[in-house]
Write a structure and sequence with these properties.
The protein is α/β, with parallel strands linked by helices. The chain has a domain at 1-97 and 191-201 and 224-274 and 285-353: Rossmann fold. The chain is built from 14 helices and 11 strands. A 7-stranded mixed beta sheet has the order 6-7-8-3-9-10-11, sandwiched between helices. It has a 4-stranded antiparallel beta sheet with strand order 2-1-4-5, covered by helices on one side. Strand 7 (190-194), helix 8 and strand 8 form a beta-alpha-beta unit. The relative contact order is 0.14. This is ABC transporter ATP-binding protein. Keywords: ATP-binding, Cell membrane, Membrane, Nucleotide-binding, Transport. Belongs to the ABC transporter superfamily. Residues 22-270 form the ABC transporter domain.
Length: 353
Amino acid sequence: MTTMTKTEGEPALPGSDPFLSVRDLHVRFSTEDGIVKAVDGLSFDLERGKTLGIVGESGSGKSVTNLTVLGLHNPMSTTVTGEILLDGQELTGASNRTLEKLRGNKMAMIFQDPLTALSPYYTVGRQIAEPFMKHTGANKREGRAKAVEMLEKVGIPQPKTRVDDYPHQFSGGMRQRAMIAMSLICNPDLLIADEPTTALDVTVQAQILDLLKDLQQEFGSAIILITHDLGVVSKIADDLLVMYAGRAVERGSVREVIKSPQHPYTWGLLSSMPRLSSDVNEPLSPIPGTPPSLLNPPSGCAFHPRCEFPELVGGTRCSTDRPGLPAGRGAACHLTAEQKQSVFIEKIQPRLG
């Protein structure tokens, strides 16, 4: 299991050696309306060769966290505090020159929309080869040969011909494969996949996930998979971090979180998923309410305005006291372990079928 051993803001335990370590990360955006608290005290670890799934609704802070790891934020309007260590190297406050050397080489990202991420003016092969030439000093001939090799690795047919095609000549699934080839061409130690199967049909989704698993075994990369779909993350991740309103609300192995979720928000995510075994006319169980404004997030537990069970805690604790995330497996919730188990068995499991 991925090493996730300390509460928010604390350093790793002596003897632990995560490849990526994020500690008490805060990300603030300055806007005309005020300060947006996009990430609010996030901590997690990731080992080499492991996959961490980060799930949550839009606006939960998933993508902002990982763009910050890569240094792809605007320093003029963004304030970042906390610690980000990549293989022992501090990234918070690192210079643009340092980050440019790391991006595409030691860490890379698969963006959500390859049609937007790929330039329509250059061939797919040229764009795949660019980071390889930049970081290795290879010439155009060597870069093109490497691009062909990578296109073959990700399953593009006739790679020697398709390397000279433009993005619009690729299907959606092929463009996503091309993005994976581009991100892996320098054999990065950390690969961040931001919703890599969005807008793809189920068959192509499965192919992309299988491809990521196969390439991870070959290259040994650590992977962060960002998604809102627990079904997707369950197929590839080793561990799971559930985020809400810029905070981590639950973490553990994928099996633990899927089979025995402990946070009401995780219960809501699971309950809202359609199931193959359910009747076609059976209504879904959406999470009530709307995600909070990060300009003025709720006090206490950020999820309490949408939670079904604050009366079990009693008083105003949920609305006034922010619950901490326990070390290791656990959830940031004021419900006792006995209450969580009782509610899950009596009310949540019947919804899941």
